[in-house]
Structure formats: C-alpha cells, structure tokens
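Quick start: what a row looks like.
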Amino acid sequence: MPIKPSEALYTAVATAEGGREGRVSTEDGKLDIVVSQPKELGGTGGGTNPEQLFAACYSACFHASIGIIAQTEKIDITGSSVTARVGIGRNDAGFGIVAELTAHIPSVDEATARELVEKADRICPYSKATRGDIEVTIKTA
C-alpha cells in the first residue's frame, strides 16, 4: 500500500544533470558523483551508472530488511551480506532492467536463510516497488 508524501519519515532529494553522461548530487552534498554510460552501452565507462547505484541501494535496503526480520526473530546474522546484480537490456518498450539478489548468511542453515530472505522480500521497500515491474531473482549462497 503506498504512503502519502505527508507520511514520509524521510525524503531524499537528488538532482541529475546530463542524464547518463553527467552528474548526480544530493541536496545535502553527501553524494556528488559523475555518471557515465557503461562501455557495454557505448559510453566511456568513466563514472558510475544508474544500474550500479540501483544495485547498491537495493542490496543495502534488502540487507536491512533481513536484519529487521532477524532481530524480530532473534536470529544471529553476523557476517551476512547481500549482493545485487542489476542488468539493463532492450525490451519491447525500449529498455528494461532485471535484478538478482544473493544473500550470504553464514551464521544460519540454508532453510533458515531461505526463510529470512523470503520474509525480507515481503517487507523490503525496494522489493515492493519493483514487484511485478521487473524480473527479480532472490537466492541464498
């Protein structure tokens, strides 16, 4: 269920200049980076790109969601991590993205890890935002 803008507890503000060949910065100055088209898409590859930024954000949010579930269920996830792979390619509408998340939770058995990621997928805001719009594969390692 969507929230109303007035219900947001925090709002990030970022501005892009130059699209995929330019710069992205946040209002508070904590992020100010050069973005460039990946070489695979005909660019210079001289900076980061939207897919890398999305992968970083999705992996961080998903890992935090695992942490919330683990804390609630009193499960130790020390040493855990989430790796996101975000791909871009052509589709009927021009371009689309695909994502794969791999959770590494060495402190638990495979069944517990699987249960944690399934529950995290239900509460993660990025998972909710992408559900039904892009193909997302979630697995454990």
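That is the whole record. The longest strand covers residues 81-91. The mean pLDDT is 96.
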